[in-house]
Amino acid sequence: MTKGARPGPVIGLDLGGTKIAAGLVGPDGGIRHEASVGTPATAGPEAILAAMSALVAPIVTAAAAEGSPAVGLGVGAAGVIDPATGVVTAATDHVRGWAGTPVADRLAAATGLPVRVVNDVHAHALGEARNGAGLGGSAVLLVAAGTGLGGALVLDGRVLTGGRGVAGHLGHVPSPEAAGLPCSCGRTGHLESVASGTGLADRYRAGAAGRPPTPGPRSGADVARLAEAGDPWALTCLETSAVALGRAIGGWINTLDPDVVVVTGGLARAGTRWWDRLRDAVATETIPAAAGCPVVPATLGPRAALIGAASLLTAPTP
Fold first, then answer.
1. Check: CATH 3.30.420.40 for 137-297?
2. pTM to 2 decimals?
């Protein structure tokens, strides 16, 4: 695996539970030759690695044909990643059999490129910190409120991965609003149970017993649409979710003192009411000395992970 900065374009690859995306990322963060394919999440690691390699191969060819060959492959992958080895040390069942996969070594052998790997949310944070909403900040906290709830802290352009690669599991902190609720990690009372899209939809369905037999929402976006349409229970659930996350962000601001907090994921598109409640709760919890830290939406969308993953090969490593 590569150490230090390298010239030339780098291929960024983002492995998620439903989609694998890749593109050739230039030094300015511009992306060419983007492509994607569905993730064979239930077919095992061999099928996933084959799909990743097949997606990268034509990009390698296109870059070489342009006279500016790719100098490396940066990967943002689902699961807990050992940043030193590129091995998946832990993963959920969303990607079957993924734990233990030596992603960096296998992709290096398949592509002939130097490879570095981080967690997919860590890659998103690097992209937003270096080219997106966190540009110019030396300490950028990314909060990803999507299907689950995660995040990352980027300090001086380097993502904090922690001693075991698990830094950024923001959803697994205690939350008063989640008291007694089951969490995806097997514990109870964690923030993810109310502040993620899945948790929001679960809370709506759990409290909708006895209501007219309509299809229940399957995502946070569904609940947000119901709230926008005037459903009072959806509005209650949405506001509770925003307040819970905002209070937690206020606590993280007090603890970490970031220059900016960047919020991404499906719930970041839940609308003005969600953002208003979130920011009010942040302000309520933030101590006076830390007041004024901006809490802003991400700007790069899904491209953030490609840009962030590619930056692993174009900037000094930790």
1. yes
2. 0.91
Superfamily per CATH, domain 10-130+302-311: ATPase, nucleotide binding domain (3.30.420.40)
Where are the chain's structural domains?
10-130+302-311, 137-297
Q: What is the mean pLDDT of residues 185-213?
A: 85
10-130+302-311 and 137-297, same CATH topology: yes
pLDDT digits (tens, 9 = 90+) for 138-181: 999 999 999 899 999 999 999 999 988 899 999 999 999 999 99
Q: Using one digit for the tens of pLDDT, what is the confidence trace for 116-150?
A: 999 999 999 999 999 999 999 999 999 999 989 99
**How would you write the chain as a 3-class SS string?**
CCCCCCCCCEEEEEECCCEEEEEEECCCCCEEEEEEEECCCCCCHHHHHHHHHHHHHHHHHHHHHCCCCCCCEEEEECCEEECCCCEEEECCCCCCCCCCCEHHHHHHHHHCCCEEEEEHHHHHHHHHHHHCCCCCCCEEEEEEECCCEEEEEEECCEECCCCCCCCCCCCCCECHHHCCCECCCCCECECHHHHCHHHHHHHHHHHCCCCCCCCCCCCHHHHHHHHHCCCHHHHHHHHHHHHHHHHHHHHHHHHHCCCEEEEECHHHHCCHHHHHHHHHHHHHHCCHHHCCCCEEECCCCCHHHHHHHHHCCCCCCC
